[in-house]
Amino acid sequence: MSKIALDLDGLIKLKKAGLLTALAECHDCLIPEAVYRETVTKGKKELYEDAFEIEEIVEKNIECKKAKKSDRSNKVLKSGDPTSLGKGEKQALRLYFQEEGKAIISDDRTFLNLLDRNNRKSESEEVPFITPANAMVAMANKGIISNEEARRGLNQIKDLIRQSSYQVALEELEHGGE
User: Fold this and answer.
1) Of 41, 59, 105, 175, which is most buried with the most CB atoms under 10 A?
2) What is the spatial distance between Cα 41 and Cα 23, in angstroms, rounded to a whole number?
3) What is the pTM of this model?
4) Pick from 96, 50, 47: which is nearest to 73 by CA?
5) Domains held by the chain: number
């Protein structure tokens, strides 16, 4: 199975879409400790219902790991303004390199812009990324979930993602990934 690192945005939005477990059952999903602390530990202290549900999904299906700094992750971080990123995004990138991941799932615009800028500059350190909306479309196209499940998931997070991302994802579902 392919390894996918998730940051806080990716984890929470896929959970709110009701599709985090489906993703984790067909991929080796990884989250860094900072993401766990922010979503589960802090979330439970603040009594967020999602925190308890995410904890259960992580315990069953997602590996939480310590992310170590590396020259490769540092190089990518230096391609933008790393001070504008949170610990979770930085650690997700480190975990991606450390575990030789296939992609990162995030919906953090600053993080995605940094990765995109890096990918345009450097072929050797390219970091594939996907948004939660694109992940739902990809799962539907691969038959992991139905198009209807993907639509329902998109509607669950419609107010949490960019309207343009929502519309593009719906169109891609309509055309079956052509």
Assistant:
1) 105
2) 22
3) 0.93
4) 96
5) 1
